[in-house]
Amino acid sequence: QVHLVESGGGLVQPGGSLRLSCAASGSIYSINAMAWYRQAPGNQRELVATITYGGRTDYADSLKGRFTISRDNVKNTVYLQMHNLKPEDTAIYYCNADVLPRGSRYIQLFWGQGIQVTVSS
């Protein structure tokens, strides 16, 4: 079994910063790509950023320059540093990971439970 747990969310004022973390644990042999998504009320879940095992990153065009994704392969953790936050960044943020579980031949996609980020004065 593999679990992803997000942390670091909360309430922040416009213009502020937050750093989200997502730690993967369990029966993991290796992790390929990891990613952050978000879903605002009434909206579909959207991609925020992705990062490969080697550190290659990709971002939603609208978020480039404000958000930075990174990872620690030893800790099986992915991070999302968010700066200059705006009210429209308010959403539930989810991480996912392409995991090869121990004893399996197949890569599986696992999701975290999500964490709330609220940007408001």
Overview features:
seven-stranded mixed beta sheet, mainly beta, four-stranded antiparallel beta sheet, 121 residues
Tell me what the structure shows.
- This protein has 121 residues and is an all-beta fold.
- It is built from no helices and eleven strands.
- The chain has strands at 2-7, 10-12, 18-26, 28-39, 46-51, 57-59, 67-72, 77-82, 91-101, 108-111, 115-119.
- The strands form two sheets. Strands 2, 4, 5, 6, 9, 10 and 11 form a seven-stranded mixed β-sheet that branches.
- A hairpin with a 5-residue loop joins β5 and β6 (57-59).
- The mean pLDDT is 97.
Write the layout of secondary structure elements.
Blueprint: E1 2-7, E2 10-12, E3 18-26, E4 28-39, E5 46-51, E6 57-59, E7 67-72, E8 77-82, E9 91-101, E10 108-111, E11 115-119
Parallel strand pairs: 2-11
Antiparallel strand pairs: 1-3, 3-8, 4-5, 4-9, 5-6, 7-8, 9-10, 9-11
